[in-house]
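User: I want to check something. If I give you two sequences, will you return the structure for each one separately, not as a complex?

Assistant: Yes, each is folded on its own. Here is the first sequence with its structure:
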Amino acid sequence: MGTITPSSRFLSKKMIRKIDFTKAAVIVEFGPGNGAITKHILKNLSPKAILICFEINDNFYHQLKALKHPQLIVVKASAEKIEEELKKINITKVNYVISSLPLTIIPDMISNEILRKSYQVLDCQGTFIQYQYSLTYYNTLKNVFRESISLDFQMLNLPPAFIYHCKKVG
């Protein structure tokens, strides 16, 4: 866990507000925790879309499994295993990756691998959405997602959070 409280409903809604749910077939979520953002995604999924959550914490993994939503796949694996885990379910590309991972406290080698692999699995117009509590990760994200990064801010969260929207173009 990277914080002492779950994401607020305000942060959850702002994290997903730029997702085009009419076109999204596969969404991946890293570090869903207790499902604060997950539940908002599930409410908006089109009937044929799926949400794949990567969670390594046993308690959170079981909470997510207990949701028993037909469009939800919960994977007990680290985000750096995204390519291997997607391959197991015959998925090669995703439309969105939503991340609540505390990247600033994850060792650089692992967080860089997570970002690189996320970029690889995104389709040509895919978006990586990440929140952090500071702007210190901007340059790291810019190194991977050169094309387009926009920032948003949500004050109504504890602590307030910056939201990075990293668009893959081409």
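And separately, the second sequence with its own structure:
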Amino acid sequence: MLITAPAAQLLAGYRPEETRCSYCKTPLQEGDPVTAYAVRYAGDETWSVPRLYCRTCRPATVSDPTLGATELLAEARLGCTMDAATQTSSLTLLGIERVVRSDPEDGRATL
């Protein structure tokens, strides 16, 4: 069964593993505006968010698309999400406003 949803809905609540800017390494905290780079490779069912960028370092577009991958740049902010059942909290992507997309056929093959 194929499930489709807007990119903003897919990424809302995503918990990034790294909370530093991928470019300048500035620590990112709750409330900080970020740009998240998300990717899903052809044949994969899940998305990953391997990079976050601070406001200063954020790219405007997917400058070098990867052939066979859907890539997204999503402008969001980091927020704290609480789980009452486990009494834990984590930083997640919230308030996603703008998404730039690169489709699998937009990229170039790499050798």
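Because they were folded independently, the notes below concern the second chain alone. The CA atoms of residues 13 and 92 lie 5 Å apart. The chain has a mean pLDDT of 86.
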